[in-house]
Design a protein that fits this description.
The chain is built from eight helices and four strands. By secondary structure, the chain is an alpha+beta fold. The structure holds flavin mononucleotide (FMN). Flavin mononucleotide (FMN) binds next to β3.
């Protein structure tokens, strides 16, 4: 598949079949992430793959968070509660959850976060090419510390996650801004 085709065909998938993915398939997708560019070639990522009960426990931690954080002003959560809840249910449905951890290093926060974005997009595109559905997940950040603790990885920061599985929906493309609305060209006309 041409890269541009994978870019155009990729969708956030929020309905998954229960079919398992083989370890080879998951590793193939992780490998695409590993090959991403990174600031100073720091490769600040590491992956923990969770399946079954432990995966569902993480989803339950997210649901519990939405139930137990009433004291957080709504303007801060900005409707995030319902999003966290629905993402947690998607995590339960998808057979694989890839947790993407960032090395803790305060000097490299911007570069490392940009690098992780490249890594995760590589994985999403490879998944598309293999006809595997994916959902890039930020909503897990509310329970990041608890998840890191549960997995004995307090040395790392949970940056985001990626659900993987066979898609049980084929959503249309979501709206994008027009190129002319987001681009400015400057040039010297001498
Ligand atoms: C960094 C990042 C975090 C995201 N986090 C979530 C999430 O926690 N839950 C969710 O349902 N979708 C999440 N998404 C998916 C976006 O909502 C989705 O990419 C966007 O609506 C455009 O739709 P598309 O991916 O199908 O093109 C995330 C996407 C990105 C890039």
């Amino acid at each position: 598949m041409e890269t541009i085709e994978a870019i155009k065909q990729r969708r956030s998938i929020r309905k998954f079949k229960s079919d398992e993915l083989s370890r080879e398939t998951v590793e193939d997708i992780l490998n695409a992430g590993r090959l991403a560019p990174s600031a100073k070639n720091r490769q600040p990522w590491s992956f923990v793959i969770v399946k079954g009960n432990i995966k569902d426990k993480i989803a339950d931690m997210m649901i519990d968070y939405t139930l137990t954080h009433d004291e957080v002003p709504q303007r801060i959560l900005l409707g995030a509660k319902s999003s966290v809840n629905s993402t947690a249910h998607i995590i339960k449905q998808a057979p694989i959850l890839v947790l993407i951890f960032r090395e803790k290093n305060d000097n490299w926060i911007i570069g490392d976060n940009l690098s992780i974005g490249a890594c995760v997009e590589n994985m999403c595109l490879r998944a598309t090419e293999l006809d595997i559905g994916s959902l890039w997940i930020r909503d897990i950040v509310y329970v990041a510390e608890d998840v890191a603790k549960m997995l004995n990885h307090q040395d790392l920061e949970l940056n985001c996650a990626l659900s993987l599985g066979i898609a049980d929906e084929s959503p249309s493309s979501r709206p994008r801004k027009n190129l002319q609305d987001i681009v400015e060209w400057y040039q010297d006309d001498e």
